[in-house]
Amino acid sequence: MEIQALAQQAVEQLATYPSVTAKEKCKRLLKYGVLRQKVAPIDPFSWPCALLGEGLLEAFLATGESAYLEVAAGYLKRWKTRKFSIHYVDNIMNAHLALRIGDAVLQGRADACHAVGKQELLELCKQTQDACADWIVHVARTAEGILAYRQHHPDWLFADALGMVCPFLCGYGVRRKDASFVELGVRQLTRFLQKGMDEKTGLPYHGYDEKTGLKYGIIGWGRACGWMLLGLGQSLQYLPEDASSYQEILQAFQRLAAACTVWQRADGGLSWQLCATEGPRDSSAEAMIGLALARGRKAGLLRDPVGKPPGFYGRFAGQLLDRLESSWRQGRLGDCSGECRGFAEYPQNYGCYPWGTGSALAFLAVCGSKGG
User: Fold this and answer.
1) Rounded to an integer, what distance in angstroms lies between the CA atom of residue 312 and that of residue 302?
2) Residue 324 Cα distances to 31, 38, 51, angstroms
3) Phi, psi of 178 (to 5 degrees)
4) How far is residue 170's CA from residue 93's CA, in Å, rounded to a whole number?
5) Which of 125, 176, 226, 294 is the most exposed place for a label (fewest CB within 10 A)?
6) Where are the beta strands (DSSP E) in the chain?
């Protein structure tokens, strides 16, 4: 499994996802046209595609191959033609992608990108961020003043949203010197730390109900752990160390990282539910958790757990990469669990999905291994 091959898969998926079958189209028509039921929009600019964009950006930063950046920028340009349509908080991930691309341009990392001019790219990134920021300012919030995962369930808070919106909120707020965005990002993280965790294992539930306080979903769903680690770790990289709640978030990141390693399988990988060590492996859980830890190590946010030998996290990440290598078959990354449909709805389908591809590409690129 090399960066070049995995990036090619990401490019293909970014151009075609979501692909709706004729059968699915008929079902949607029946629900909407006949039964008058609401159907979720078919959105090619949601979190799976944002993860693919993140993977391609990391591949560009690791290899200098401008084609990867041009594809990611082209994705944002297509979203602009849709007037930055935002259906859910999922779409806000695109703003963080834009923020990071903008940083790469300003740092002189994107000078080799000829398909999109430097000033055009900077303006595209600014427009993407501002459109998402405007949506955040005007969208309804929960009673505690944070962003609900879905507006039709305004009291349900999912771990997924921590990785989807908090890095952008903190990064945008710091860049624009707007404390309200930083405060919202920090509040989103700290409320979940207070209300969405399992005390015994140190792992998150999938989410919680803000009104009742009940926790929902399973403990230690692999991608929930990945989303949470990504949200905590990337947000920390924007926050100044003397910021309010910085130490609380840092310690939570370190605790969760250590808690995830406890459930490493005998084969070196991670299961779709971390605690189900004899259940199916999930390459997306391995990739998301591995990516968060690799970024955390590079940023100096992780120290080896008490009682573990020096370099523990480096070896752990290497073992996860080895497991991902075993999932690379016929030019595609498999063993990725299918899309979750909500609390306690985890279809046991495993195959090739963009959330596995994008996260694995970013993980491989950040680790600097097998560049192609």
Assistant:
1) 10
2) 39, 38, 17
3) -115, 100
4) 13
5) 176
6) 156-158, 207-209, 215-216, 328-329, 332-333, 336-337, 350-351
Q: How would you write the pLDDT of the chain (372 residues) with one tens digit per residue?
A: 899 999 999 999 999 999 876 777 676 566 656 566 666 778 999 999 999 999 999 999 999 999 999 999 999 999 999 999 999 999 999 999 999 999 999 999 887 676 678 899 999 999 999 999 999 999 999 999 999 999 889 999 999 999 999 999 999 999 999 999 999 999 999 999 999 999 999 999 999 999 999 999 999 999 999 999 999 999 999 999 999 899 999 999 999 999 999 999 999 999 999 999 999 999 999 999 999 999 999 999 998 888 999 999 999 999 999 999 999 999 999 999 999 988 889 999 999 999 999 999 999 999 985 433
β-sheet bridge partners, residue 350 = 337
- Integer Rg of the chain from CA: 19
- Which residues are CB-contacts of 120 (< 8 A; sequence separation ≥ 6)? none
- To 10 degrees, what angle do helices 118-138 and 66-81 make? 50
For residue 11, give every residue at least 6 positions away whose Cβ sits within 8 Å of its Cβ, in sequence order, or none.
Answer: 56, 68, 71
Q: What is the DSSP letter of 310?
A: T
Helix (H, G, I), strand (E, B) or coil at 43: coil
Q: Are strands 215-216 and 328-329 parallel, antiparallel or unpaired?
A: unpaired
Q: Which residue has the tokens 């005390």?
A: 199
Closest residue by Cα to residue 94 from 168, 149, 40, 173: 168
Please list the helix, strand and coil fractions of the chain in percent, rounded to the nearest 5, in that order: 55, 5, 35
- Cβ pair 316, 310 in contact under 8 A: no
